[in-house]
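A common beginner's mistake is to predict each chain separately and then try to dock the pieces by hand. The better habit, illustrated here, is to supply every component at once so that their relative placement is modeled jointly.
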Amino acid sequence: MANPFEKINQEQTPAMDDLSVLSSSYVPENFPHREQQIDSMVKSLSSIMRHGRASNLLLYGKSGTGKTSISRYVTQLLQEAGKGSIKVVYINCQITDSTYSILVYLVNSLSERDEERIPPMGWTLDRVYSELITRIGQMKKYIVVVLDEIDKLIEKNGGDSLYVILKASDDGKEANLSIIGITNYTSFADNLDARVRSRLNQESIIFQPYNATQLRDILKDRMGGIVSHTVVEDSALNLCAAIGAREHGDARKAIDLLRISMEIAIREGKSRVGEAEVYKARDKFETDVIKESIMALPLHSKIILLSVVLSQKFANRPAYTGEVYENYKRICEEISVQNLGFRRISEILSDLDDIGLIVSVTKSMGRGGRTRFIRVPDHIDSIEQHILEDEQLSTFKGVKLTKQEKLSGLEDESHQDIDDIFNSQRSD
DNA sequence: ACTCCACAGGAAAATTGGGGTA
DNA sequence: TACCCCAATTTTCCTGTGGAGT
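With all components supplied together, the output reads:
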């Protein structure tokens, strides 16, 4: 029996396409329209090579403006030039987002051997901290810590983490550590504690959004590295650039679109990528983003989202918190899961709103009370599908739903004005 | 002006669970 | 094994609030 994977492999071989240059993890060699930023970074970091201490750097710019790629690129060059005397530690603060986890991560990055690694939990913060100081002292290298999405740290615990890390850079015996912070928000430094700000914000570099022309240059540059039999029409390339430019000058989006368009063309056996493929790619992109964010959700968030979907469908209007909670409890009962309290549900609904999976508006109906009206903006059915793909929800067959028939002050038919509120919200 | 609904959201207590230590 | 420490997650308790009804 032929291996079905082999078959797929053979089917694709004639194309001989290698699109890895367009993948999100690829760090290119050329950064069109970013010469100035690279130059500033190199200048700032070059004092390390003269055995001095580099100033801490802050990189500002919207997503997809090259901050992460360029800092990876520059620090890699630095590491090579340092010939083993420089250690670069890259931390994504969205994932590693507490003082504790960052310190543990740092300590483990400075471990040469596995047995030196410390457990991700259990130690006291003090113990991890002094361990870090010891390691910094022992390490005869200059350490550069890149904190990507550094704003997430402030969001969570108001800058304490940053203070601790900065303190570690001073407490380390030779103080041979500097920090590169990366953030999406220009106002990031304003919210900082003064003692943290002065030390962190020693030098800042701004990454302006790319415009459509610049994005086109970037795409062309990347295309140069592609071995492909697929021809990308200029109009398609321009469209990718234009969509990226509309999204606050997002190069990542433009590149992703180009890659997906090419993948679509290849799969459909076409030799040219035109505007139609780009539009298809944009749709796929959107649904993929939704799917991924749903799959990453914890169980109870999924159940709540399911409850929102079902409540909304059942009542044929946006659902409100009380209803969602009632139906959520029923779903939990159905699948034999202990339900969470009301307060927590309220919080999870806010989270879902932040992610963008639901849209909610708080509205007061006078005596009818004040509540959030919640709606799943798009693709309701596919969202429901994705939720039900969860293993723990596989036993879910459906439940008897409830809806509040008459919310005092709100007739069932008068949800028209609520729709209006949603519509005006979305145009913000 | 005052009431009162049905929540929102802050603060603090309680629970959970990994990991260390005696 | 029993027990302590700690961080993270949830619950409990609470005060606050927009605006229709009175």
